[in-house]
Amino acid sequence: MRGAFVATGREGVGGEYNLQVRNAVKRFPGVLALDGVDLEIHKGEVLAVIGENGAGKSTLMKILSGALLMDSGEILLDGKVIPPETTPKARMDYGLGIIYQELNYLNEMSIAENLFLGRVPVKGPFRRVDYQGMKQASMDLLRLFNLDYNPFTLVKELSVAEKQILEILRAVSRDVKVLIMDEPTSSLNEVETQRLFGHIENLKNRGVSIIYISHKLEEVFRLADRVMVMRDGKRVGVVDIKDTSSGQLVEMMVGRAITEMYPKEKVPIGDEVLRIEHLSCGCAKDISFSLRKGEIFGLYGLVGSGCVETVEGLLGIKAISSGKVLIDGKEASIGSPIEAKKRGLAYVPSDRKAEGLILIHSLKDNLTITKLDELGKGFMIDNAKAKEYCDTWIDKMQIRTPSRNAIVESLSGGNQQKVVVAKWILTEPKVLIMNDPTRGVDVGAKVEIYKIMEELCSRGISIIMVTAELLEVIGITDRMLVFANGTIAGEFMRNDYDQKTILHMAVKGNENG
Fold it and tell me: Which residue, among 484, 483, 502, 505, has the nearest Cα to 493 in the 3D structure?
C-alpha cells in the first residue's frame, strides 16, 4: 500500500468489502495524478474521500466510473475484477453509479428524458416510447425532493440546485451497489441537503455503499463511517470518523493546521455606494437595501427565495419589472452585464461551467479575458502583460495547474472556481457580487478566498455574497438579508447573528411581517 494507512479494525456494516481499488496509478502530461492509491469500502458503508483540490479525488472517481483508464492497478466489485476497459455504461450495469461535481444534463430535453437517458421505457411490438410510464416514474422520483414539476418540463427551466437534484435522482433510480457522490450538495440549501442525507441513510440501510466526496467537513462528520484522506495523488490515511476531529482531518489534507476557518477582520465601513429601491425581478418582489464601502453584505435564502433573481436584476442579466438602482447616489440604468461592468459591478456566477469559463481555452485566456481592453494593441494582445497578470493570480489563488497555458477544462473543479473568482477581482470593481463563490472549493482554498475578500474590502471594494451555506454567510459577512418567498424576511447585523433564527426565517418567512 502507498501512503500511511491507519487501520480501523472495522469489518463494516456488511462484514465484507463491496468495492476495492488496488494500487491505482494515473499520469497526465507533467502530472502524476494518482500514485499507487488503494481504496476499500464495505457494504452499507459511507466512506468519505477528502483532500484539497488536485489531491486526486475526482481522478480516482472517474477511473471507478470508467470515464478514465488507469495506467496500472485493478478494481474489484464483490470480489471480481472489473476489466479496465469497461465502458461507463457497463460500469453502471455492474452497479457502479456516480454523480459528478460538474453536472451533466441536456438543457433542451425534458426532466423525464434526462432521468431515463439511455434507458427510456418502451412498450408494444414496435417498441414505442412509453411516455405515460416514463411520466409516472419521473413523478415518483421528483416527489422524493418535493419538486412540483411537470416531468416534461425542459431542464433549461430549472435552477442550478434543481439540476443538481436531477443528477441525484438519475443516479439513485438505478439499482446501484456502489454510489459515488462528488460534491452532491454544492448547490443545495439546508432543507434539500437534509432531505438528501435521509435518502443516503435509506440507501445505506439497503446495503448500498456510498463513496462521498465533499469539502464540507460538517457533512463528513454527519454522514461518514470512515474517512479516506488524499494529498498530492496519494492516500495519506483512513480513519474511523469517531476517532478523529475536524482539525486532524484538515491537517492531514493540507499538511498544516488551519486555526481559523473564517478569517473575519474588522474593516472600516464607509459611505453608501449602492442602493436598490423597490426592485422586482422574477420571483423577487419589492426588494430594497443599501451597500456601503468596504462591506461584505450577505444575501441568504433557500432556492426560489429571490436572492439570485435580485442580483440578476441588479446586473442586467434579467429585466427588472419595477424599481431602481442607485450607484454613488445617482440612478443607474443597467440593461446588460456589459453595462454593469462599465458601472463598476462585477459578478462571480455560481455555475462556472455554463457561465464562468470558456472551457476549451487556456487558463491564461480565461483569467485575462476581463482585461482585454487594457491588454489589446490593435489586433494584438500584450502577451507579456497577460502572462504577468496570470502568474500573479495563479500564485495568489494557489491555482494548481501544470502551466498557465493548460486548458481550463483539464483543471479540477475547485481550481476552475479560483480562475473565475480571480478574473473578476482582476477588474478591480467598485462592487463585487459573488454567487456561491466557494462552491466546490476545498477547505484550504476557501480560507484563501475569504482572505482575498477581506483584502478587497480593506481597499474599499464592497462585496455582495449570495451563498447557500449558512455557516459561511454567518462567518464572513458584516450584515445579511434573509430572503423567503421572493421577499426580504429579515435583516441581521453581525453581532445579532443566530443560526436557528436565520434558518427558521428562511424556511418560514417573517411570520410577524
Answer: 502
Is there a contact between 292 and 464 (Cβ–Cβ < 8 Å)?
Answer: no
Give the per-residue pLDDT at 8: 38
Residue 301 · residue 506 · CB < 8 Å:
yes
What is the per-residue pLDDT across 377-427, written as a single tens digit (0 to 9) for each?
Answer: 666 788 888 899 899 989 888 888 889 999 998 887 778 888 998 999 888
Task: Pick the closest to residue 260 from 438, 447, 440 (CA basis).
Answer: 447
Every domain of the chain and the residues it spans: 1-95+175-259, 105-174, 281-508
Question: Which of 214, 182, 179, 228 shows the shortest CA–CA distance to 2?
Answer: 228
Strand locations in 111-225 (E): 122-123, 128-129, 178-182, 209-213
**CATH 3.30.565.10 applies to domain 1-95+175-259:** no
Could you tell me where the DSSP H helices lie in 206-239?
A: 217-223
Yes or no: say if 19 and 82 are a contact pair by the CB < 8 Å rule: no
- CA dihedral angle for residue 38, residue 41, residue 46, residue 50, rounded to 10 degrees: 0
Please give the grid coordinates belonging to residue 364: 491564461
**pLDDT number for residue 14:** 44
Q: 281-508: same fold as 1-95+175-259? A: yes
- By percentage, how much of the chain surpasses pLDDT 90? 39
Radius of gyration of the chain (CA): 23
pTM equals 0.64
CATH topology of domain 281-508: Rossmann fold (3.40.50)
- pLDDT higher for 345 or 169? 345
Do the Cβ atoms of 40 and 235 come closer than 8 Å? no
Question: What's the gap between Cα 50 and its chain centre?
Answer: 15
